[in-house]
Design a protein that fits this description.
single chain; three-stranded antiparallel beta sheet; mainly alpha; 295 residues
């Protein structure tokens, strides 16, 4: 079964063109299912039954895994068995009629405007790393791009004069996202004052660099956000994804069209974007409850 998983991942990479992050997620989910089968001494893919799949899902639920995560794992297994059927490795797709658990709409963590401003004011722009951090956080909040998209940006992905960034989302899909004056000012300051000093006469096309002159990693940006959140004395559990959530929520609150937000976020399905309308309604309810004389 290990070989079949490798063949499936190769298919996803070569023929489907899925991103490395997605492949890692698929591999993790499939290995977890494989370990579940091995613990029950099921060594052949032909011996896996529909009952094994549903029992695996229930076992994941008992371990405290959310319905969203279980649904993601089932989607991975469905794709895997569909591939095996097409390659004549199995005679029947046992996952075909298994229904996904109903997704619980969990509201994402969102920063207020004041909290975003507090974080953005924290970096010391006179410092080489501080100017870089300010530019990267400004750009992420201005565009709503994913952290993987941000750290993979190249110098020629930016059109600073017009105010657009080109990024590559899930499945390598390219999209163009705009950014405003404040992000532009921070980026220009970083490019003029900080990036040459970080580059240290090396050659790199990566936009955001570390002190070693290498491309910034997701982990580095994650630590950067955590650092400035602490310094801004914000108690929320803020992650890079929080900036993406906040971007979407804030522009929808100001009347942006849902389809436009979907395009900027790079969501394939608009239902993924619609969760931010639930955030807005939840905030309206909390405000009404707090201030109405007869809540």
């Amino acid at each position: 079964m290990d070989t079949l998983i490798d063949e499936f991942l190769s298919y996803l990479s070569v023929e489907r063109g899925l991103s490395n992050n997605t492949l890692i997620s698929y591999k993790r989910d499939l290995r977890k299912f494989l370990n579940y089968l091995k613990a029950r001494r099921i060594a052949s893919i032909e011996k896996v039954s529909r009952h094994n799949v549903t029992s695996f899902m229930l076992d994941e639920k008992d371990k405290g895994l959310s319905a969203n995560s279980i649904s993601r794992e089932l989607a991975c297994l469905k794709s895997f068995f569909k591939f095996l059927l097409r390659e004549n490795k199995i005679k029947d797709n046992i996952t075909g009629v298994i229904e996904s658990p109903k997704l619980w709409k969990k509201l994402p963590d969102v920063l207020s405007l004041d909290e975003v401003e507090a974080i953005l004011k924290t970096p010391n722009i006179r410092d080489v790393a501080g100017a870089r951090d300010k530019a990267s956080i400004e750009l992420m909040y201005a565009t709503g791009m994913r952290v993987s998209e941000l750290v993979n940006l190249k110098m020629d992905d930016l059109n600073i004069k017009v105010g657009f960034a080109k990024c590559f989302g899930k499945g390598g899909k390219e999209r163009i996202v705009p950014f405003g004056r404040k992000a532009k000012e921070s980026i220009l300051r970083y490019l003029e004052k900080s990036r040459p000093r970080l580059l240290k006469k090396k050659v790199s096309n990566a936009l955001f660099l570390t002190r070693l002159g290498r491309a910034m990693s997701r982990q580095t940006f994650w630590k950067t956000i955590k650092k400035y959140t602490r310094e801004a004395r914000i108690k929320k559990n803020v992650t890079p994804h929080s900036l993406r959530h906040s971007f979407a929520t804030h522009i929808l609150e100001r009347g942006a069209d849902l389809r436009i937000v979907q395009e900027m976020l790079g969501h394939a399905d608009i239902s993924t974007t619609q969760i931010y309308t639930h955030v807005n309604k939840d905030r309206l309810k909390s405000i009404h409850k707090k201030f109405h004389p007869r809540p």
